[in-house]
Amino acid sequence: MDTILKEKLLNRKIHLSINFKFLFSYLSILVIVITVLNTYPIIISRNLVFRSKQNSLETQANQISASLSVLDSFSEKNLASVMSMLDIGNLARVTVFNSDYDVLFQESKVDTYIDNGSEALIRDCFAGNNSFRSQFKDGVFISSIAVPILNSGRIVGCVYLYDYDEYEGTIILELLNNIRKISLALALFTVMVSILYSSTFTVRITNLLRAIKTVREGEYSYRIPVAGHDELSQLYEEFNSLTQRLQKTDEMRRRFVADASHELKTPLASIRLLSDSIIETPNIDSETVKEFVTDIRDESERLARMSEQLLSLTKLDNNVVTVRTDVDCGQVAERVMRTLNPIAQQNNVSLSWDFDSDCHILASDDDLYEIILNLGENAVKYNVEGGSVFISIKKQDSNVKITVTDTGVGIPEHDIPYIFDRFYRVDKSRSREIGGTGLGLSIVKATAERHGGEIVVERNPEKGMTFSVIFPLYFHQTK
Ligand code: ADP
Known about the structure:
By secondary structure, the chain is an alpha+beta fold. The protein has helices spanning 2-69, 76-85, 118-126, 166-216, 231-280, 286-317, 329-346, 365-381, 428-433, 440-450, and strands at 93-98, 103-108, 131-137, 140-151, 154-165, 325-328, 350-355, 360-363, 388-396, 399-406, 454-459, 465-472. The protein has three domains: 2-173, PAS domain (Beta-Lactamase); 231-313, Helix Hairpins; 323-472, Histidine kinase-like ATPase, C-terminal domain (Heat Shock Protein 90, 2-Layer Sandwich), CATH 3.30.565. The strands form three sheets. It has a five-stranded antiparallel beta sheet with strand order 2-1-5-4-3, sandwiched between helices. Helix 1 (2-69) runs antiparallel to helix 4, helix 5 packs antiparallel against helix 6 (286-317) and helix 6 packs parallel to helix 10. The two termini are 74 Å apart. The mean pLDDT is 88. The structure holds adenosine-5'-diphosphate (ADP). Adenosine-5'-diphosphate is lined by residues 378-379, 382, 406, 408-411, 419, 424-427, 431, 436-441, 465.
């Protein structure tokens, strides 16, 4: 109960933290985008309006100044007559000062007059500068300009123009309004999508986590349902295939332990039975004792062989490193022939061979010896009276092919896929009779594969079997 609660809390923590990170990153991006969206276009368009206002006001002020600068006398009357001829209809306020700061002309169309620093502007104007100021306030563009009126290089007055533009202000306000609406919709949409996405993602991560825990607790049959093709789905697939491998290895291990104990139990039981018979049979004749003791010796030899082979298999399983050197297959096979010859003679099987010279592979002498001997022994053991065994070593393209052919009892087609399994025997009683352990071929396969070899089994068209092991040819450097 406690662990379940802990697990739930952990899941929740992970969920929260991943969700939080996702949301945090999405929201940060969102805030940046919305801020930029709400400021940049407004600033740009406002500046554009300011610039156009400055241009148009400056043009008008310069025109007025030019028209007034030609006047001989700078009187209110003269000014009024010139001004009446000029087009100043679009301006909110036009004021003309003389050099004593007296207002000689004024025309105003607005009640609202915001003094955005006209005094400073006029002072600046009498200092000989065109002075402009503009602001955007409460949705209105308020701009003013003061331009000096020159007569024979002397400042005789100043034209002051004041512009009050609600129209362009409204456009900007509308733009701002629309951007705000878009931002709101964008924010809502992003938040919704990110919540949806981050929660789906975290649910999937949690699923994976749960699956890992389940498998860690030993339930190797657990699989995560895979949907979609994204990286997480690929992760699920990888997890499933890893679990499948684990399950297979676990099954193999269990089966191996069960088989091994069974295989070890059988000879031990026979030894016990035979010794009991010797002990418990009164007046047992020496001939029978000899026979029983011979059987006991055979069984113990089998036990010894089996433990040796089990040890070899464990080494192969553990990938114990063996030093790989340049091995001349012919030389190793000749050694095998010397061992195999007496066994073949004993079984009344003829043994022949044909070895190409210079067939080098990268392996270890002992491992290759083990492979050829095991295959050769099987070919003799599972043969018939008067049968034959032929062993060949041939160079084939960039490979070396070692073939062991016999004219023996053969292996039924349906047994072939299993003969490399540990403890698998086709004819159990025959194998036991001749001291087989059912481990030889699995050792051959694992050893060959360890040195980059591949093993192929075929039923001969007439009778018997052909086992071939193909190794990559090693191009050794001749000195
Ligand atoms: P064993 O120690 O029983 O010989 P192996 O792993 O070497 O174990 O062989 C597995 C089984 O494959 C043997 O029990 C035998 O039935 C069969 N087998 C192997 N080689 C041959 C062969 N050349 N001809 C017929 N059957 C064979």
